[in-house]
């Protein structure tokens, strides 16, 4: 199990929303965040949900 993440969820979300792009590595980061020893707090969960909502609406470009 992952105990800590190297960067914060907020940092990743801010970069994604600022660039309008999400990478496969970002997706993997969010997957790891969900299984980390410390669960996402309500604010982090809301931020991740916002990214996925924008992705579903076509407002983010998926890049590799």
Structure description:
- This protein has one domain.
- Helix content is 59%, strand content 9%.
- The chain has three helices and two strands; from the N terminus they run αβααβ.
- Strands 1-2 form a two-stranded parallel ribbon.
- Give the termini distance in whole angstroms: 26 Å
Helix content: 55-70%
**Helix and strand pattern:** HEHHE
What class do helices, strands and sheet pairing give?
A: mainly alpha
Oligomer: single chain
Main pleated sheet:
2 strands, parallel
Mean pLDDT, as a whole number?
90
* DSSP strand tally: 2
Shape annotation? globular
Q: What fraction of the residues are assigned to beta strands by DSSP?
A: 5-15%
User: What is the domain tally?
Assistant: 1
Q: What Rg is obtained from the alpha carbons, in whole angstroms?
A: 11 Å
Strand order, largest beta sheet: 1-2
Number of helices: 3
Low-confidence stretches: none
């Amino acid at each position: 199990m992952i105990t800590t993440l190297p960067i914060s969820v907020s940092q990743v979300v801010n970069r994604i929303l600022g660039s309008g792009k999400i990478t496969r590595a970002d997706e993997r980061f969010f997957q790891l965040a969900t299984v980390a020893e410390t669960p996402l707090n309500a604010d982090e969960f809301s931020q991740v949900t916002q990214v996925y909502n924008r992705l579903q609406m076509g407002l983010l470009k998926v890049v590799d």
